[in-house]
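Work package 3, deliverable 3.1, input record:
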Amino acid sequence: MNVGTVIGQILVALGAGLIGTAALGLFRLPDVYIRTNAVAKGSALGVMLVLTGVMVLMPSPTTVVTGLLAIAAQLFTAPISGYAVGRAAYRSGVPLAPNTHLDELARYRDQLGRQPGPPLH
Amino acid sequence: MIVLNVVLVVLAAALLATIVRILTGPTHADRALSVDFGFVVFTAGLAVLAVRLSTPALLDLVLAATLLGFLSTVAFAHLVERRAQ
């Protein structure tokens, strides 16, 4: 067991810890907006750490090129998908958690096309 | 190798939480978010399996799954938004 194996396994374990934290947030948090916050950050950083660890564990040119491409794709797409889900949730009228203090978009509700009725089930 | 086995168990637990959220999630937006997260966990599991089974060909699948997950999430979010109007 050389140094590269140890470093790669530490990176993979850290990434899995972040993904587990994001899963805990998805399971426990009260509101789809807060869940979006937890999942978008935790999953993107976690899978980037896992892919970096895999590149360290299997250092070959094809592995590194594929891993870097996957990391770049994840880096660009994960925030956009989290934003798209939050935007769709707000525009379709999903209620905020009861202990929310501030809704800055409430005064633009008419322009956003937010439905006043119950959310989509 | 034992670290990778533990990591695979953690990822399986994360997928279990995702499935629970898909089944019980109160709105369709929760389900769209869960599908996105499930794709990410699946991607990480594929990358770990590529090391565990020492088959680097699985990393091509990681790249495809990343892009497919993004496209499906955006399409699903658009569907949630359209259905509400």
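Chain B touches chain A through 51 residues (CB under 8 Å).
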